[in-house]
What does this fold into?
Amino acid sequence: MPGVTNADQAVRLARWHFAQLKLRPEQYTINVDFEHLVCTRGDLVKVTHDVPQWGVASGRLGDGVDDVITGSTLQLTEEVYLEAGKSYSILIRTNNLSNTIGSGSITKNLAAITTTGYTSTITLASSLVSGDGVLSDNLFMLGEITKENQQCIVVGIEPSGNYSARITLMDYSANIYTDDLSGLLVFNANMTTTNTPLIKNSITQAPIINSIILFSIMLVYSKIAMAIT
It folds into this structure.
């Protein structure tokens, strides 16, 4: 632990690193467009992706006109596949920073799904109001409740062409901040803590010093001048 001189702090940091290995075991890389500009290394982000099947769909609301959306019916620019009997929720990113969920985001549950299939129109369980700040063209993430996205920590951002970037992510785990990590630093090196010499010294008495002889050496240095041409 460079720079750490306190034993308790060293143990705490070691447990933290062990916890990251245990609770954040996966690493992902994704390619994104200019949306990568909203985050930096270390940020907590929410990701929807079809390969690991995080969420069902993502897209934008409405017809692209920045009108305030109210009511319980939402028009989506992308069709989503919903299954009857499952419970879904939608996360909408807004510019209303008074909302407490994320940076102006709002989450709404969908009404009961009775028909399986693709649709571009969804019905919410509770209506949106103007104070929610939801506008047409806002981004959305949709999926089963508690599964509409995956929370990740940004590990690295590698800019690419056309304002795109390759982002490296790791799983976000809230347990790393709340769990008792004391058990993560249990390690037995199987080493004997007491020294058992294989060959014992045969000397049983301390030596007796009879005399001390002091001498000095005079060193004479000679300086040689050298000319280099």
Summary: Residues 27-54+149-182 form one domain. The beta strands are 27-32, 44-47, 57-60, 71-82, 88-93, 105-109, 117-128, 139-144, 150-159, 165-171.
